[in-house]
Amino acid sequence: MIDASFEQTISANLVDNGKLLDLEDKSIGIEELRLLAASDELSGVKQLYLSQNQLCGEAIEILCQVKCLPGLTSLYLNHNIIGDEEAKSLAGSDLLKNLKCIMFEANNIGPAGVAALAESPNLKNLEIIFLDSNPIGPEGARAIAASDKWPNLKALHLDSSGIGDEGIEALAASKYLGDLEKLYLCSNKMGNAGAIALANSPYLKNLSALSIWRNEIRDEGGQAIADSQTFMNLDRLYMSLNFIERPIRKAIRGSELAKRLTTLVMD
Fold this sequence. Notes:
Elements: H1 4-13, E1 14-15, E2 20-22, H2 30-38, E3 47-49, H3 57-63, E4 74-76, H4 84-91, E5 101-103, H5 111-118, E6 128-130, H6 137-145, E7 155-157, H7 164-172, E8 182-184, H8 192-199, E9 209-211, H9 219-227, E10 236-238, H10 246-253, H11 256-260, E11 263-265
Parallel strand pairs: 2-3, 3-4, 4-5, 5-6, 6-7, 7-8, 8-9, 9-10, 10-11
Antiparallel strand pairs: 1-2
Helix pairs in contact: 2-3, 3-4, 4-5, 5-6, 6-7, 7-8, 8-9, 9-10
């Protein structure tokens, strides 16, 4: 029997005809997740928001045992305290089996946690993953690049993840990212090497959106982007706050690439 007060919390935050359960910043903890795990009334929920609840440790272990959400396709866990061990637990959970979107932004997931997610057999339906503001580093990027377990991935969010040129080069060389459509790499201290790797990648030809602003790209990297034959399908390019000098910025604006774009954001 589900607790009456928690049932009220569920009812008050179940919207969109029962398809979305919004428990963001609702002081959800171990006891509430136990009650959620005991519920049999949530089979219609497609999206679950658990952001900003300071979830970690035992709370995540209990979440991994939830069986009442068989139709879940989107899980939002951003701004919690999820680290490598919690990521490993989630990677092994059946809760993830039907997910198309998972949000981990602003947690504490490092290379080991990302590697577990990248090798999870439960994420074969995944289309969008947010790992922004997690310290995954180059090793984490390499784990993603080496994985064949996300065959349906379309959008990869890695802003502020510390992957640097080394990690970006690994992504650009990944044969498993050939269907990727959106790639977000802001604030990663990317220099010319990373920009050139992206521009020359034989695998990123399906990108429609690329965000590389607030990095350390200079003229050589900027010119490589302008001349790229990889970005023939690119529609949106965000590259402000780099170190590209005015003549090269002008060349980018006058390039064939720019003519194809519907959005070019560059200072």
